[in-house]
Structure formats: C-alpha cells, structure tokens
Amino acid sequence: MEKLRRLWRGRTMTFGVPLLLYLIGGSFGLREFAQIRYDVHQLHGKIDPALKEKLKQNPVTLESEYEKLEKSNLDNWENIRGPSLWEDSRTVQKQRREALRLKTE
C-alpha cells in the first residue's frame, strides 16, 4: 500500500499522466474540429449552376492572358508617384496634371 501511495504522489502521476491525457485528448479534439471545417467547406464550396454556365461561356486561359501581355508595350512606362499620407491627394493630382500639360505644350 505504501508503494502505491508513493507512486500516486510521484512526479509521473502528478505531471506526466495529465500531460499525456491533454496531448492525446487534444489530438482527438483537434481532429473533430478539423473534420467539421472540411465538412462545412464541402457544403459551401458548391458553385451555382448559372454561375458555372457563365464561367464556361467565357473561358480565360493562361495563354490568352499571356497574349494580352505580349501585345501591351511594357518598355515605355512612367513611374507615377502617389500622394504621401500628409499630402492632400487633390493638390497632388492638380500638380501632376499641370506638369503633364506643360510637358505636352
């Protein structure tokens, strides 16, 4: 009986067993919550048939987008500075328009 009391009050029973119970119980609980997440995703992940038809009518492929990029002129571009946080965007736009007007004249 004394050995059983000493074992019960030892570090293994005080710290080790509760730790193992938390780890094992937590893994089972986490698995259940993850399964709920995937079940909800399957229910809400379905696409409306009308939207599916609309997507089939307008196919966008990687090749078509690449052809659009090839047609655009990427060599002639201008870096346009936006307003800083402390600047008023309307005054910056006015200054920019004025500078463009002077440049084209």
Automatic annotation (TrEMBL):
<comment type="similarity">
    <text>Belongs to the COX16 family.</text>
</comment>
<dbReference type="GO" id="GO:0033617">
    <property type="term" value="P:mitochondrial respiratory chain complex IV assembly"/>
</dbReference>
<dbReference type="InterPro" id="IPR020164">
    <property type="entry name" value="Cyt_c_Oxase_assmbl_COX16"/>
</dbReference>
<protein>
    <recommendedName>
        <fullName>Cytochrome c oxidase assembly protein COX16 homolog, mitochondrial</fullName>
    </recommendedName>
</protein>
<keyword id="KW-0496">Mitochondrion</keyword>
<keyword id="KW-0472">Membrane</keyword>
<dbReference type="GO" id="GO:0005743">
    <property type="term" value="C:mitochondrial inner membrane"/>
</dbReference>
<dbReference type="Pfam" id="PF14138">
    <property type="entry name" value="COX16"/>
</dbReference>
<keyword id="KW-0812">Transmembrane</keyword>
<keyword id="KW-1133">Transmembrane helix</keyword>
<keyword id="KW-0999">Mitochondrion inner membrane</keyword>
